[in-house]
Amino acid sequence: MFIKMSDISFNYDSVSALSLINIDINKGESVALVGPNGSGKSTLLKVINGICFPSQGEYWFDGLQVTEKALKNQDYLKLFHKRIGFVFQNSDAQLFCATAFEEIAFGPRQIGLSPDEVNERVFDCLNLLQIEQLKHREPYHLSEGEKKKLAIAAVLALNPDVLTLDEPMNNLDVKTRNFLKDLLIKLRDAGKTIICATHEVSQIQDVFSKVISISEDHHIS
Amino acid sequence: MNWLYQEDTYTPVRDRKLYIDRSILSILGTVSRIRHEEKGHRGGIYAVSPPAKFVCTLALIILFSLSRNIYFTAFADSCAILMASLLVMSDLKRIAAVTSVVILFSFILLLPSMLMGNIHNSIMICMKIAGSVLLLNILSHSTKWINITRSLKLIRIPDIIILIIDITMKYIVILGNFAVNMLYALRLRSVGKEEGKHRSISNILGVLFIKSKEMAEMTYHAMECRCFSGSYSTQMKFTFKARDFLYILFILFICAGFFLMRDVK
Fold first, then answer.
1. Start-to-end Cα distance in chain A
2. Nearest-CA distance from A35 to chain B in Å?
3. Given A39, A64, A103, B127, which residue has the most CB atoms within 10 angstroms?
4. CB B182 to CB A94 under 8 A?
5. What is the residue extent of each domain of chain A?
6. Under an 8 A CB cutoff, do A74 and B203 touch?
7. Is the dihedral of CA B200, B205, B207, B208 positive or negative?
8. Closest CA in chain A for residue B214
9. Cα distance from A45 to chain B (closest Cα, Å)?
10. What is the secondary structure of B21-53 as a DSSP string?
11. What is this model's ipTM?
């Protein structure tokens, strides 16, 4: 099993956000997390990405248990973050570089690729997301759809094995939604593991092989 | 495009990355300190009426600054410590840490004066600073911000200023959360060695500045749409209970000390 969660619970102070969650995800599988607002989808994605740590239960990624202690090992932490990419719900929170080009180049530069390889990855991602014309623009001046595409490009540039997305279709027009849907299908077919949180089931038809539904009481229903 | 369809063989390079975690922790600390107020009511000094606490704290700070008597200053400091001991342990620890740093800092600043022989006054200034900081911390830790700002009405602060302070508090939390999310995003993509670590942080600060400007404009437009014309009125509810009476009695006891110890040498 590539990603395995057993009896995961998470609380914000005394408020429960996840309760006894059990999930098994195979490599290359595309999974939709559906559920109403406040059900804990975003929290679950944060746990998967090692931003939050469960108060109870076990989380295993590719045969290794992910714990706060394990992620204190800098080498493992970096490899873990390299292998799992996270597209935040709010793109503004994810974009912090001066230009779109710099934003996409940030990850490849981090992993020590040569300038030519960085350029190749950046232009490939710009082409894939069809945002070549934005390469010199400041991220905070872009539209919501453009920001979302840029955030996805920035994450894809690291070539993660798992792509996690938090409500990627929110605030997007129909054209951009359809574009993202086609992109997810393309990535799925390329063998990427995709985990996507959404509360609109209609958007995810044809894309996902598995649907995990989280109920309002934070359990898997 | 082939790289996207193949697995990378990547071995991380060792690098210090504590600065991101430290930034996240410090922002989370501030945000949670303000959010902490959303917790339910506690008894004791926490339940004393906010306007009473606000006025009494103000009065004591004025007495601290007026006092020229080291005995009163020591007496008032002891009473402030007694009040602080009524707080819960987590608040007490935080206040003790802040006050200790302030005392140390004051002591270092006044050290040249002490070396010149002005020991008595320098010690008294340190004691006054410690008492005032302690009282302010007791007020801020035992009272919700919203109630402190409402209490400003008692000293004739205009309602519009109270509104500005309220909005500021709200946006400290919102922008704090936003900053934490940006730092998380930075941490998730900081998978290698980065030479200009501080550049990323300054980028985040720049985005935060722009975001706060946009939010300010949006708030202004939203207020205009709801017929805001520059005037704003706040309501303050004042209820007086037995614990308020006891609290005020204790403060009056300290105030009496100011007059009774005036001539003690």
1. 21
2. 22
3. A103
4. yes
5. 3-213
6. no
7. positive
8. A140
9. 13
10. HHHHHHHHHHHHHHHGGGSPP-SGGGGS-HHHH
11. 0.71
CB contact under 8 A, B189 and A154: yes
Looking at CATH, the fold of the domain delimited by A3-213 is given as Rossmann fold (3.40.50)
CB contact under 8 A, A82 and B194: no
Size of interface A-B (CB pairs under 8 A): 103
Q: Say yes or no for a CB contact (<8 Å) between A159 and B1.
A: no
Q: Residue A54 is encoded by which pair of tokens?
A: 């469960």
Cα separation, A161 vs B5, in Å, equals: 10
- A 10 A CB-CB count for A118 gives 21
What are the boundaries of each domain within chain B?
15-31+156-234, 51-143+237-265
- 3 state DSSP class of A10: strand
Q: Is B12 helix (H, G, I), strand (E, B) or coil?
A: coil
- Alpha-carbon gap: A54 to the closest alpha carbon of chain B (Å): 17
**Pairing of the two strands A64-65 and A56-61:** antiparallel
Give me the residue from B1, B181, B191 closest to A124, CB to CB.
Answer: B1
The answer to whether A184 and A125 have CB atoms below 8 angstroms apart is: no
User: How far apart are the C-alpha atoms of A57 and A19, rounded to whole Å?
Assistant: 10
Q: What share of residues in chain A are helix, strand, coil (percent, to 5)? A: 40, 25, 35
For the entire predicted model, the pTM comes to 0.73
**Cα separations (Å) of B166 from A83, B159, B233?**
43, 10, 13
Contact: B188, A81; criterion CB under 8 Å: yes
Quick one: closest CA in B to A154, which residue?
Answer: B189
Buried b (16+ CB within 10 A) or exposed e, A191-216: ebbbbbbbbeeebbeebbeeebebee
In order along chain B (265 residues), what is the average pLDDT of each group of 10 residues? 81 69 71 59 80 92 90 93 90 90 92 90 92 93 83 81 82 82 83 70 83 81 68 69 90 91 76
CB contact under 8 A, A154 and B5: no
